[in-house]
Amino acid sequence: MNIREATKEDWDTIWPIFNEVVAAGDTYAYEVDTTKEQAEKIWLDTPRKTYVFEEGKIILGTYYLKTNQAGPGKHVCNCGYMVSSKARGKGLATSMCEHSQKIALDLGYKAMQFNFVAASNDGAIRLWDKLGYNTVGRLPRAFKHPDQGYVDALVMFKSLEKNDK
Hints:
By secondary structure, the protein is an alpha+beta fold. The chain has helices at 11-24, 36-45, 92-106, 122-130; strands at residues 2-5, 49-55, 58-67, 76-83, 111-118, 134-145, 149-159.
C-alpha cells in the first residue's frame, strides 16, 4: 500500500470514487449531481495538495489538504477523505488521516479542522475522535441527509503541535 501525491493523470481514476461518495448525498455538502469537471476543480485543482492511496496500481482512496482560512487563519488546514466502497473497513481512512497530519506539519500548519462533519456520519466521527479530534462546534440541522432529513453538522479540530492539547 502506498500514499502518493495525485497527478492530473490520476483524475479519471479518482472520479469514480468522488462520484460514488458524493452521489450518495450522506457525507459531503456537495451537490449530488456534481459534474466530473466541477469535481476536478474541487478535489484536484483548488486544494494545496491532493493524495491517492493505492494498492499496486489501483487507487482505493484519496484526500485533499488545503488552507482552511486565509490571513490570520492560514496556519489551520482542512482535509477531505474519500474511500472506494470496495475498500472500506480496511483502515484506509485512518492511514490517510495520519498521513495528512504529517504532510500538514511539513507544510507549516499548526492545526487541522473539519468544517462540516454530518452528525449522522458515525464512522467518520468515531475515527476522528480516535485520532484526537475534538468537536468544537455543532451547527443545528445544517446538513440535509437523504434518509434522515436535517441533521447537525459538527466542526472538529485538532492541534498538530506536540505541546498543545
